[in-house]
Amino acid sequence: xxxxxxxxxxxxxxxxxxxxxxxxxxxxxxxxxxxxxxxxxxxxxxxxxxxxxxxxxxxxxxxxxxxxxxxxxxxxxxxxxxxxxxxxxxxxxxxxxxxxxxxxxxxxxxxxxxxxxxxxxxxxxxxxxxxxxxxxxxxxxxxxxxxxxxxxxxxxxxxxxxxxxxxxxxxxxxxxxxxxxxxxxxxxxxxxxxxxxxxxxxx
Length: 203
Description:
Layout: E1 7-9, E2 18-20, E3 25-29, E4 35-38, E5 42-46, E6 51-54, E7 60-62, E8 67-68, E9 78-84, E10 90-97, E11 109-112, E12 116-120, H1 133-183
Antiparallel strand pairs: 1-2, 3-4, 3-12, 5-6, 6-11, 7-9, 8-9, 9-10, 10-11
């Protein structure tokens, strides 16, 4: 049964009607439209801070240096910035050390909704109204992964074949060495007559 959190106001309707969210919501980087995550990994959202927290994200990486907030709602908390892997835009924060008030956000992915765009899967939205770049990048990434896995498999087969060939070459070299040593042995001369022994003179 849908709850109040599963509903959002319809646009330009003065909040008189509500639209039920019937499918997953996909979050994209607002700059390059790369897919970042979806509502299946939703943890919580905060209207006051304009953030949404997800358990898992895609196509992102964290900043190498940890920062500590000096002001704002997360003052005193230490975090890594979450960056879009495609365009390097800052999307949010991943807290690694928190005060008790933000303890539930630690080791998750708290994203700034102003840095995101979103759409609901299965809605009747024209292609001209939103870009397919993010979805196409995911498909391209999956194809590249499959190609790399296939190349690894082919390389393994080639390596095994080279090992077999190397073993056969070693066996051939050993056989040739044996034959060479056999041809160098002196052949006994069977045609030579035995040396004559001097006869004893009779007195």
